[in-house]
Write a structure and sequence with these properties.
Elements lengths: L2 H8 L7 E7 L7 E8 L5 E7 L8 H21 L4 H4 L13 E2 L5 E6 L4 E2 L7 H17 L18 H14 L9 H9 L6 H7 L6 E3 L8 E4 L5 E4 L6 E3 L1 H12 L17 H15 L5 H28 L11 H18 L1 H11 L1
Antiparallel strand pairs: 1-2, 2-3, 3-5, 4-5, 6-8, 7-10, 8-9
């Protein structure tokens, strides 16, 4: 970022003090993120400044309206509970005209948040307690927003977790076979065919209103939780770009998909890939404690299926991208997306085998 561009953008926001330092921050792959340090009469004040990626988030205005609505709601709930809203949720720094974003002279969209001090995030759980804290944070997020009118949020990425439509796209990729890869992926293709009915389960339940529409995060990985640097306790849910109306069981399931595996998402040696019941139980305990009884009985019943379906859907997306030529997910080696698909399907198999144990863990903490 040039000094001229930095000056243009920084002057638009209601930052406190005089800019002392601006430096790239974090390891995100979507938005350009900077940490700004300002000198004030009392103590340094730090902020996060982000340039939103318009190629990924094509409706940045709607996205920011969603974030503004949700964070405003969270602040009120946290204040009512006697908490610290400057630490327990993201705080948008407005522009001088009150707008929550700024469009620069190049047409790029910028936003700013208050930096949350003495916090850290983990890429992987170092112990079950870390995953419990993640579950507690996402459950608390779900609980605080349980009475938010989810239907008023924009669906900024249409059909993001519509598994049945993901299946349609998968079958189109198989039929077109544009890269001639179907033979190499024949076992994985059959794996999807064998579970075709699974793809319709949650979609049908949502259509029949058997599962309520909720405010969902849609990227419930461990690294989207800030932990207190001293105590290790969960503080705040971050990265709200994909907040949309959706199903609570999908948010739960995506956390399990990513966090309850014994191996990396792209591990080529499937003998290392297993579904950990210990981690599943740790997360479930935290999630249900955080939800504080806000989920319906039907939602609770479907949590294990949410884990299976989100893992299956993600594996199908990796496989579809592989068949289409690897144009969506970044790859770093040949057949990278096929490796990713195989880890997910391996986890699905083990989850199917342990479905009754998963259901028992949910019953234990509900």
């Amino acid at each position: 970022m040039t000094e001229k561009r930095l000056t243009e953008v920084v002057h638009q926001f209601c930052f406190e003090g005089e800019l002392q330092e601006a430096a790239p921050y974090g390891n995100g792959h979507i938005n350009d993120t900077y940490r700004l340090t300002f000198c004030t009469s009392s103590a340094p004040r730090r902020y996060i400044l982000q340039c939103m990626n318009k190629s990924i988030f094509k409706k940045p205005v709607q996205l920011m309206e969603n974030i503004q609505g949700v964070t405003g709601w969270l602040k009120k709930k946290i204040q009512q509970a006697g908490g610290n809203p400057e630490r327990e949720t993201l705080n948008i720094i407005p522009c001088a005209d009150g707008c929550p974003y700024y469009v620069d002279s190049d047409g790029d969209y910028w936003r700013a948040y208050l930096f949350i001090e003495d916090s850290t995030c983990l890429e992987k759980a170092e112990k079950p307690e870390d995953f419990y804290q993640s579950g507690l944070a996402f459950g608390h997020f779900q609980g605080l927003l349980s009475d938010y009118p989810a239907e008023t949020l924009y669906e900024t990425i249409p059909d993001f977790h519509h598994t049945a439509k993901r299946l349609e796209k998968f079958y189109a990729a198989v039929q077109d076979n544009v890269c001639g890869r179907c033979e190499e992926a024949s076992r994985e293709i059959q794996f999807v065919r064998d579970r075709e009915k699974l793809s319709h389960m949650l979609c049908d339940m949502q259509e029949k209103k058997e599962l309520p529409l909720r405010v969902t995060h849609n990227d419930t990985k461990l690294n989207n939780i800030l932990l207190d640097s001293h105590t290790g306790q969960a503080i705040c849910v971050i990265d709200l770009d994909t907040v949309m109306p959706g199903l609570s069981v999908n948010d739960f399931g995506d956390s399990i998909r990513f966090g309850a595996s014994t191996a990396a998402e792209d591990e080529p040696d499937l003998s290392k890939v297993h579904f950990s019941m210990e981690l599943f139980e740790a997360y479930t305990r935290g999630f249900l404690e955080g939800c504080a009884g806000r989920l319906t009985e039907r939602e609770l019943d479907m949590l294990p299926w949410g884990a299976i379906l989100m893992t299956f859907e993600c594996g199908m997306r990796f496989l579809t991208d592989y068949l289409e030529g690897d144009h969506y997910f970044k790859i770093h080696r040949p057949a990278h997306n096929l490796d990713r698909c195989r880890t997910q399907f391996r986890l699905v198999e083990e989850m199917e085998e342990k479905l009754s144990q998963m259901a028992e863990a949910v019953r234990k903490y509900r």
